[in-house]
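User: Hand in any protein.

Assistant:
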Amino acid sequence: MGAAPSRLRLGTRASPLARVQAEGVRAALAARHPGLTVELVFVRTTGDRVTGPLAAAGGKGLFVKEIEEALLDGRIDAGVHSMKDVPARLAAGLVIGAVPERADARDVLIGGDGGLAGLPPGARIGTASPRRRAQLLAHRPDLVVVLLRGNVDTRLRKWRAGEVDALLLAAAGLARLGISEPAAQPLPVDEFLPAVGQGALALECRADDGATRALLAAVDQPAAATAVAAERAFLAAVGGDCNSAIAAHATLAGGRLTLRALVTDPDGRRRLEERDTAPAADAEALGRTVATRLLAAGAAALMGR
């Protein structure tokens, strides 16, 4: 076996949150590999250029596509993604080389007292997520969901300016940015199921790049990787697209993995939910099993297929 590489080029988007996430990965890799120089390479993705709904431009994979192209072209050695932005199936020749420790997977409601129940009738809630929209309307059909995109600071600024009465954001993003918003109220996972992979990062690399895979393995967190594997296996098996209201969250305890998954129609009026457990070693099989049950119950029709 040859000597370990002395340099690793880490591709990332240039948004404030993406930079913070990549810096955290760089620090973790440097701590575990003394002498390794980790260079951040900023990649502008199609998703960064889109101002309207992502679905109209091709979906969430647009935050990943150009980074994957840079990997395949050899311009970078690894890419950092928010796991929830990564399509269920990667580009050919690429793998997820590591999943670092997962942050809080919950959604956070900003604005209003007393959680969702405390919002006034007809309150305007800002989000660009079909999953969040459907679950909001399932709890409160009277709410008005306003399409709101942009980075975390942009959304908070629009809320403070009164463009919406409340926001839904990922707890992990606020924490990583060091934002402590007094009006933020985490929503329990049992009531508001997160997106597949929410709170986790994906370190993607070429499947045949053994040296980079060995470097990334040092920052892999097995419990997080196992939970995410079940969630992503569910996503791949159930299908759907960027317009689909799909949620899933897995937890590991005592060597057993529990997966909860949800599929709803766009307005949250009809919903199908499934829950199952399995040994941690069977994470991907658990995801496929839960997807099979939901599809048998009619999930495809709720997703418009």
Notes: The chain has a mean pLDDT of 92. The chain is about 35% helix and 25% strand. Residues 82 and 201 are 5 Å apart (CA to CA). The first helix runs from residue 16 to 32.
